[in-house]
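Renewal narrative, Specific Aim 1. Our central claim is that a sequence can be written position by position from structural information alone. The example that follows is taken directly from our test logs and has not been curated for this report. It begins with the structure tokens describing the chain, in the order in which they were read.
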């Protein structure tokens, strides 16, 4: 990508942040020394006015001992100061003008009002990026003393050279620390770009998630409304008051489940977890309610329910969520038996801690190459008639919400068999 690029995410295009580094290379250096000859000598070495650099000389007798260094062109932009007050004015002006210093050379024994270490400490507090090199004599403060004054967390932002220093040392420190400054700024900028790209990706992914939730809501409400409409038709057609009351009671149960479905998906769309509404439930009740809600559909499709084994079982569960599961499974069974047939429902307790429910249809089964994918969201074998969400919702409710197991297989005698294993007690996450 050039200054700006595009990322493809889940079929959508996200405009990526610019990838060209917006920071010009910063080689500004502040030299602070109360001996003007030292300050000017360092400045002349780093930013020579001609190709030949004069050796550094110190009025304290601490001059350089290395031969002069020849530089063909200026490398650094150097500004000099002879006391802490002047240095702070130059430093603050650079910040205000958006032209900060990358690093500085600081004499430790500056005159009043501040020595070099106090000056650097103040600069570090105002600029978290600038680096410093102390120019010190052996009788000045020790390295440990400087570390104690500036803080352990700042040890990577400063160094020192002893007098007498060489021209090579000055050049090497300047190159190293200006390079570190620029690399650090680029790293921080790249991290900002990465964070922004991730934000855009997450934002796009959230849109996709909300869209998937919307499809799920439509799917679940479609199931429930189909049953409500069916029972409403019965209530209108039958002139028997008792039959009308039964139909209306079934409609009320369906709307109750619909309310629970809406609440659940609303929480998901808002980024929250499904509400924990688990109570002690007789396992037969959500199965029977799903059968009751589906009674109109069963009759219309000539499908019969056969309870092969039905042991009493009590467990902690979300009643409405389980109704959703069984309705989805029954609808799938009806779909694969267009000429009618039978659905076998079996419930038992293999152990005191587990309830096993098996639901088997009389359809043609699922091709073995497709079977591993049937619980994937949006995968469907129904073409335009399916959403690919029913089994994915069932699996999520059983395995995520109830910490159980959801398995689909082809029965040896034909048809599809769904096995659900549910723990009778929902243990705490940290238990």
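The sequence written for that structure reads:
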């Amino acid at each position: 990508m050039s200054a700006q690029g595009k990322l493809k995410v889940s079929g959508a295009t996200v405009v990526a942040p610019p990838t060209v580094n917006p920071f010009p290379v910063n080689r500004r250096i502040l030299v602070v020394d109360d001996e003007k000859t030292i300050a000017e000598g360092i400045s002349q070495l780093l930013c020579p006015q001609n190709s030949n650099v004069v050796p550094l000389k110190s009025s304290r007798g601490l001059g350089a001992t290395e031969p002069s260094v020849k530089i063909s062109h200026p490398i650094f932009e150097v500004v000099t100061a002879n006391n802490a007050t002047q240095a702070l004015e130059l430093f603050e002006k650079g910040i205000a003008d958006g032209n900060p210093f990358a690093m500085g050379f600081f004499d430790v024994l500056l005159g009043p009002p501040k020595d070099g270490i106090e000056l650097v400490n103040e600069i570090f507090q105002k600029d978290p990026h600038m680096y410093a090199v102390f120019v010190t004599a052996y009788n000045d403060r020790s390295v440990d003393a400087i570390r104690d004054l500036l803080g352990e967390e700042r040890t990577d932002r400063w160094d020192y050279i002893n007098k007498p220093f060489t021209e090579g040392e000055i050049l090497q420190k300047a190159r190293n620390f200006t390079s570190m400054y620029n690399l650090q700024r680029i790293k921080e900028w790249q991290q900002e770009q990465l964070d922004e790209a991730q934000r855009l990706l997450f934002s796009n992914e959230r849109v996709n998630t909300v869209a998937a939730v919307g499809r799920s809501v439509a799917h679940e409400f479609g199931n429930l409304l189909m049953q409500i409409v069916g029972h409403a038709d019965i209530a209108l057609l039958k002139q028997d008051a008792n039959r009308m009351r039964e139909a209306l009671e079934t409609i009320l149960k369906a709307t109750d489940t619909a309310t629970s479905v809406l609440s659940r998906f609303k929480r998901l769309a808002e980024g929250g977890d499904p509400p924990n509404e688990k109570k002690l439930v007789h396992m037969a009740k959500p199965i029977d309610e799903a059968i009751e809600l589906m009674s109109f559909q069963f009759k219309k499709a000539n499908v019969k329910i056969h309870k092969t084994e039905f042991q009493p079982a009590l467990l902690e569960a979300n009643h409405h969520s389980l109704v959703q599961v069984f309705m989805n499974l029954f609808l799938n069974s009806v779909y694969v038996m267009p000429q009618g047939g039978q659905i076998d429902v079996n419930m038992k307790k293999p152990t005191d801690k587990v309830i096993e429910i098996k639901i088997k249809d009389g359809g043609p089964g699922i091709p073995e190459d497709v079977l591993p994918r049937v619980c994937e969201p949006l995968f469907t074998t129904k073409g335009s008639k399916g959403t690919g969400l029913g089994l994915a919702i069932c699996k999520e409710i059983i395995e995520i919400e109830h910490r159980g197991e959801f398995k689909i297989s082809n029965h040896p005698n034909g048809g599809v068999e769904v096995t659900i294993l549910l723990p009778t007690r929902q243990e705490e996450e940290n238990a």
